Description:
The protein is built from 11 helices and 9 strands. With 328 residues, it is of the alpha/beta class.
Amino acid sequence: MTAGSRSTRRTALGSALAVVAGLAAAPAAHAQDWPKARPVSIIVGFAPGAFTDVIARVVAQKLGETTGGSFVVENRPGAGGNIATGQVKRAAADGYTILVHSVAYAVNPSLYPNAGYDAVKDFAALALGPRTPNIITVNPATPAKDLKELIELARREKLSYASSGIGTTTHLSVERLKAAAKVDITHVPYQPAAAITAVVAGHTPMSSTSMPPAVPQIKAGKIRAIAVTSARRSALLPDVPSVTEFGYKDFDDYTWVGFFLPAGTPPALVERINAEINKAMELPDARERFVGLGMESTRNTPAEFAAFLRDEVVKWAAVVKSTGAKAE
């Protein structure tokens, strides 16, 4: 081999190594640049005013303040959030399109004949946002004062309950309870904001909703709280017992908000955005807003959220199968 050919090989090898090094450094550099290249689209799967939308707007505002970037919230309601999910699934995996969804994200693949996505494979789990237990409430005219009395009443009389919609955890939690208690209570699905209004007005004697719409009505004396569906009592309503206190095991059902990125987003970028979302959610005024909604948030990593999500997908798939719930 001549000196010239050896020099050519060294030059080619050096160029190849430089390319590899450049490719390895690209995700890290991209993570450092985010979110300055252009506005970040935050796609919400539900209509304006829904608690998912409220959380998204709080976090978007705080992200803008802490990063100096521009964050634009866009609502894409429909099909239980599946329309928004499909849009973000098709987006570039560059950190500039973020999906904000509820626990329905984990439920829909088993609830719909074709939700259009795999909850584990098609997205990068970014961050678990605030969450709230579901709560069972009754109209004050309903004689039951606690869950035991409510179950006994359901065995004597024909009762119905309002939920935030078919396939929501507010629906599925009560279906689980019905199966465990061996009672029949008719399900009446409403839009989320209307479910609590139904029990206040007495259209249904009881309801199952998330905490945010229920707490103001409970404090105003317009409805009576019976039980929360988390394993422990809620700090917001410490006098309200949990379902597990009445002997029903394995109840730890929440309505939660999650942040997601398209699959294939560089891990360094996922970590960067996760850190910024956690920082935003920990700001005092953001935490105060969440508490006012009856929701709590805790710092979490993408890996922790991914593990939580896998458990949720399995759990709700089993509940959907056992109850026979279907999207209509």
